[in-house]
Fold ABC transporter permease.
Amino acid sequence: MRSYLFRRLIGMIVVIFLVLTIAFVLVRLAPGDPAALMLGPDATPAEVAALRVRLGLDQPIIVQYVTFLANALRGDLGQSLFFNQPVTQVLADRAEPTVFLAIFSLLVALVIATPIGILAAYRRGSVLDQGSITSAMLAAAVPSFLTGLVFQRYLATDLGWFPASGYGGADAGFAERMRHLFLPAITLGITNSALILRFTRASMLEILGEDYVRTARAKGMSERRVVLRHALKNAGIPIITVVGLTFALLVSGAVVTERVFNLPGMGNLVVNAVLRRDYPVIQGTLIVVAALYVLVNLLTDLLYLVVDKRVKY
């Protein structure tokens, strides 16, 4: 186990280093001068040049790159060009809506996908099975922004059950903020339930056809115990894999939903940062998302040991 963790740690460091490099290169290949954007169209060339010097954008690319790497190793992702705050602080201020949205969306997806996937596999070929496959394909095909707009129109505007947008005021309590996340979470949960449902169904189908499942039934074990204790437990590894990846995707891919519901999360932040050419914020967001992916993959692999004792590293 120690050897495995050491290898994974080395791999994580390599991945983060590559992401740092790619993020630095990509944002500088994009057209546009952040200094000119910050000062506006009325700024003179001298003012733009002076701001570039103050921001360090006049230095050679290699110097900027080395400085960026050195600062990143110390946990300093730079200073936001527009917020005039450390990038870590900017990201931390906007992490709460995104993280809670990802968690609630994943819970919604699991509540929808897991029982339906199990029942669909158990009743293979039935109307429930065919209907679940069709519903999963429909949920995956419909864009999340369209689902969100429909929910806004009927559940928020017409019925007034939930807020249509925002995250509550500055003095809003935790319950009020979570209430603002209900519709976005349902929107993302429905969209992402499709993949979990299909994986759950496929894994359960494979396990239900195994010899030891037939043996358990032949011994007179109840169907509920066969399905939940034997089949579901052994089908858990593929399901855990897709759940872990779904959570990482929810954190990094909630941009459209956050825009539709006007949530002050990381998705909205990175869109605005791209429009403003706020290099440090773009780089910092990419690094945080990459680190999240690597960490989720590691936790998923370790969770295999809990679910299935036969797994060895």
Summary: The two ends are 6 Å apart (CA to CA).
